[in-house]
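Protein in question kept in full:
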Amino acid sequence: MHSAWLDTANIDHPTCVSTRFYPGEPLNEHHRTAGNLAVALHSVPGSKTVSAAYRFPSANSLAILVATTDRPARHPIPMPASEDEIPDHIRHRPPVPLQTPRPLVLCVPQLRSGVNLSRLVRLAGCCGITRMIASGNVKIDPTIARDATSVVRIDRHRSLQPQLLQLRRDGFQLVGLEQSSHSQNLHEFRFPHRVALCLGHERDGMDPETMRIMDALIEIPVYGVPYSYNVVTAATMALYEYCRQFPAG
């Protein structure tokens, strides 16, 4: 008689089952933890699978469960023989050294939230970006930005557009992170090395005048609702992809 593992989760409520049983054996209370048994456990002749169906009391629905006897064996975690064998825990590894400074400038319009701006400063510091351009009322919370305030230079300007045009004259390509009918998928976009990454406003996105001067627009696929990411979340994904493409700087 083969044993099997049954793993499932209540489709409506996060009640999980992970139990071992033998097909045909009497069910105990542990087997019933997911709900009321509606169909008895049974095995299919000549098959390695067993199945069961549970009716959950909290929902008028059935969940069909399938388990296999091919589940890998569970191995205990090896323990050190003595305390001398326990390695020291390193919570923060030192930064990965860059061969050259990153030629990326993060350009930020006036945001509604100083928290978002402070988080962007911390993000820039973690990605090895040393320059940001921000417009409007710029207030950085050092408890959020942390040590990045000492390594990221923040140029403050009343308007962003003149600074973007100057960056283009300095040899930077302007890439906007914004959803539009002409945006390219971030998964397929190849970043220019020397780039000014321009973000949009949290609620209003990127204004049409700024979009018109962009050399390229990129967007991040959304797989559910709401239809867009938070500005810091989107910037994190875009900057991580840039760092992945140019790991040395």
Summary: Residues 1-73 have pLDDT under 50 and may be disordered. The helical segments are 114-126, 142-145, 161-169, 208-212, 231-245. DSSP finds five helices and twelve strands in the chain.
